[in-house]
C-alpha cells in the first residue's frame, strides 16, 4: 500500500471514525481523518452526552418534590437557570472535543479540518488538498430531517435544541422516536408546559407494546401533554410565540417547536453518488463493511444499522480486524441482543426481543411481569410506578427479552444484558440471590408467569 499517501483515510471524526482510525493506526497503518464540524460526532456534541446531562438536570424537579416526604424542607421554591445548564454543558463538550483530538494525536493519526469529497476509489479532496488512500472509510453519521409544511422553517432540529438563547416556557415536540420522547420529558422536567405530537397511535414504534403503554401513562402523569394520531398542519409566528395548528383541529400556542422526526445519512457533497444505496437511502455494505466499491468502506449511522454509539464502536473494531488485522473475524458482527435505553422520565431499558417479536419467533413463550411502586415513593408520595418484564422461550427456558420502565432502567438493564447475551435460562435467574431492598431484585424473584 506504499503507493498511496495513507493506508486508511477516514471521513468523519465521530465515535466510529475515531475508533477505527486509532485502532488501525495501532496496527501500523498510516491514517488520516477529515472532520468538518466537531470531534466526537453526534453522540458527544448533539446526542448522547448532552442529552443525558439535560435529562439529569430535569430529574432534579422530581428530586425536589420527593424530598419533602423524607424530612427535607427547601427554604424556597427552586428556580431553574437555563443559561447555567447550557453553558456548563458547552464547557464539558469542549473538554471532550479536546480529549478526542489528543487521542488521535497520540495514535499518530493526522487530523484535517474540512469536509472531504471522494474523487474516485482511492482519492479524496479536502481543504484544497488531494490525498490518496488504499481504503477510504465513510463514517459521517446522520443529520436531522424535518418534513416540509407551512411554517416548518420555524422549527428547531435536534442539533439546535441544546443551545437555545432563552428557555421555552411552552414547548412542543413533533415525533415519536427516542429523541422526541426524551426531549418531551426533559423540557417538562425543566419546567416547560410540554406537548408531544405524534402521527401514530403510540410512540416508540418497535419497542415492546406493554413498555410503550406503560411509558405513555407515566409520562402523562408527570404532565407531558400527549397528542397521538395528529400531525402539524402549519406553524405561524405570533407576537411572543408560535401558533401551531394540528391536523386534528387543535391550536396550541408555544415558544418553541422541536422537529424530532429522524435523522438521515449525512452524505451530501461527499461524491458518493455512484455507490449502491439501500431502500432507505443508506450506504449498502457487506460483512466486511465494504460498499459497492470495495476500497470504500462505511460504518455507523450511514449504513442503516442500529443508530447507537456502542454499535459504531463495535463496527469499527470489526472493520479494522477485517482489513488490518492478522486474523480477520470468522463470523460477521452479531447485532442480536443489543441493549438500549430511552432517557425519558421514567427511563426505559431493554434488551432482546419484545413480547410481540418473541411470539412470532418462538410461538410458545412465558411472560413474567411486575408493576410496582418503588420503595422510595412510599415516603415521597409520588405515584410513579416501575415495570419489569422477562420473556422466556418455553421450550428451552432461555430468557430472550428483558424490559424495564423505571428509575435508572438503563443502569439495571446493562447488567441483565450480559445474562441475555449469554443465553442464560430462567432457572439461572431464579437461582440468583437478589440484593435487598432494590428494585433490580425483581428480575430474579419473578416466579409466576403473567401469561403464556
From TrEMBL:
Keywords: Disulfide bond, FAD, Flavoprotein, NAD, NADP, Nucleotide-binding, Oxidoreductase, Redox-active center. This is Glutathione-disulfide reductase. Residues 338-446 form the Pyridine nucleotide-disulphide oxidoreductase dimerisation domain. NAD(+) binds at residues 175-182, 262. It comes from Halomonas heilongjiangensis. Coiled coil: none annotated. Homodimer. The lineage of its organism: Bacteria, Pseudomonadati, Pseudomonadota, Gammaproteobacteria, Oceanospirillales. GO terms for biological process: cell redox homeostasis; cellular response to oxidative stress; glutathione metabolic process.
Amino acid at each position: 500500500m506504499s503507493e498511496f499517501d495513507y493506508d486508511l483515510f477516514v471521513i468523519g471524526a465521530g465515535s466510529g471514525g475515531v475508533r477505527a482510525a486509532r485502532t488501525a493506526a495501532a496496527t501500523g497503518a498510516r491514517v488520516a481523518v477529515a472532520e468538518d464540524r466537531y470531534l466526537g460526532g453526534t453522540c458527544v456534541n448533539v446526542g448522547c452526552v448532552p442529552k443525558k446531562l439535560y435529562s439529569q438536570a430535569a430529574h432534579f424537579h422530581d428530586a425536589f418534590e420527593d424530598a419533602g416526604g423524607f424530612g427535607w424542607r427547601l427554604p424556597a421554591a427552586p428556580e431553574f437557570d437555563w443559561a447555567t445548564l447550557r453553558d456548563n454543558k458547552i464547557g464539558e463538550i469542549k473538554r471532550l472535543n479536546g480529549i478526542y483530538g489528543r487521542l488521535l494525536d497520540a495514535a499518530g493519526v493526522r487530523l484535517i479540518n474540512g469536509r472531504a469529497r471522494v474523487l474516485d476509489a482511492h482519492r479524496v479532496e479536502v481543504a484544497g488538498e488531494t490525498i490518496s488512500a488504499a481504503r477510504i472509510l465513510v463514517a459521517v453519521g446522520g443529520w436531522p430531517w424535518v418534513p416540509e409544511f407551512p411554517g416548518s422553517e420555524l422549527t428547531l432540529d435536534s442539533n439546535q435544541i441544546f443551545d437555545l438563547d432563552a428557555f421555552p416556557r411552552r414547548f412542543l415536540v413533533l415525533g415519536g422516536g427516542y429523541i422526541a420522547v426524551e426531549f418531551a420529558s426533559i423540557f417538562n422536567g425543566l419546567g416547560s408546559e410540554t406537548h408531544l405530537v405524534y402521527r401514530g397511535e403510540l410512540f416508540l414504534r418497535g419497542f415492546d407494546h406493554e413498555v410503550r403503554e406503560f411509558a405513555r401513562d407515566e409520562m402523562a402523569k408527570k404532565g407531558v401533554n400527549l397528542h397521538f394520531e395528529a400531525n402539524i398542519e402549519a406553524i405561524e409566528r405570533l407576537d411572543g410565540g408560535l401558533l401551531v395548528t394540528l391536523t386534528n383541529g387543535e391550536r396550541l400556542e408555544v415558544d418553541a417547536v422541536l422537529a424530532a422526526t429522524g435523522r438521515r445519512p449525512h452524505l451530501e457533497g461527499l461524491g458518493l453518488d455512484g455507490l449502491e444505496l439501500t431502500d432507505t437511502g443508506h450506504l449498502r455494505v457487506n460483512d466486511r463493511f465494504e460498499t459497492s466499491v470495495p476500497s470504500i468502506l462505511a460504518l455507523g449511522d450511514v449504513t442503516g444499522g442500529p443508530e447507537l454509539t456502542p454499535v459504531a464502536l463495535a463496527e469499527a473494531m470489526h472493520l479494522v480486524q477485517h482489513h488490518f488485522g492478522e486474523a480477520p473475524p470468522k463470523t460477521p458482527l452479531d447485532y442480536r441482543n443489543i441493549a438500549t435505553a430511552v432517557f425519558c422520565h421514567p427511563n426505559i431499558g431493554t434488551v432482546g426481543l419484545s413480547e410481540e417479536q418473541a411470539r412470532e419467533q418462538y410461538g410458545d413463550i412465558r411472560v413474567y411481569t411486575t408493576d410496582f411502586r418503588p420503595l422510595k415513593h412510599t415516603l415521597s408520595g409520588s405515584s410513579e410506578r416501575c415495570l419489569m418484564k422477562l420473556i422466556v422461550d418455553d421450550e428451552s427456558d432461555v430468557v430472550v427479552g428483558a424490559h424495564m420502565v423505571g428509575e435508572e432502567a438503563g443502569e439495571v438493564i446493562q447488567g441483565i444484558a450480559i445474562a441475555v447475551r449469554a443465553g442464560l435460562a430462567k432457572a439461572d435467574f431464579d437461582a440468583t440471590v437478589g440484593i435487598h431492598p432494590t428494585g433490580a431484585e425483581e428480575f430474579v424473584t419473578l416466579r409466576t408467569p403473567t401469561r403464556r
